[in-house]
């Protein structure tokens, strides 16, 4: 079952990669443009920050970033579960164990 573990590791890594890249590409980029893009001639005591925080792009970028990050977190969780869950017992072994238990219970009933 190394295939399941490999797939789980790939899902974890992809979830981390997508979460980090999308965060850097959307929210941090938007904040750098908004806060760092102040022209030199503007008085910083004015309400430039309020107008920039009410920019329509923030209301589009922030919810989309949250949705993508939540999906990445769910993918990481699923991949981690795949990575750490032990392999199931094959059906043949399970059937043999059940047959052995039935034989033991039959012998105990005959012995009583």
How would you describe this protein?
The chain is an all-alpha fold and 112 residues long. It has one domain (2-111). It is 81% helix and 0% strand. It contains four helices and no strands. It has helices at residues 2-36, 48-53, 56-84, 91-111. Helix 1 packs antiparallel against helix 3. The longest helix is centred in the N-terminal third of the chain and has 35 residues, at 2-36. It is rod-shaped, with a radius of gyration of 28 Å. It starts with a helix and ends with a helix.
Report a brief summary of the structure:
It is built from four helices and no strands.
Reading the helices and strands in chain order gives HHHH
| Rounded Rg | 28 Å
Beta strands, count: 0
Percent helix, as a range, is over 70%
Could you say which structural class the secondary elements and strand pairing correspond to?
A: mainly alpha
Mean pLDDT, nearest integer? Answer: 79
The count of helical stretches stands at 4
Silhouette:
rod-shaped
The total tally of domains equals 1
| Low-confidence blocks of residues | none
Largest sheet: none
First-to-last CA distance? 44 Å
Percentage beta strand: under 5%
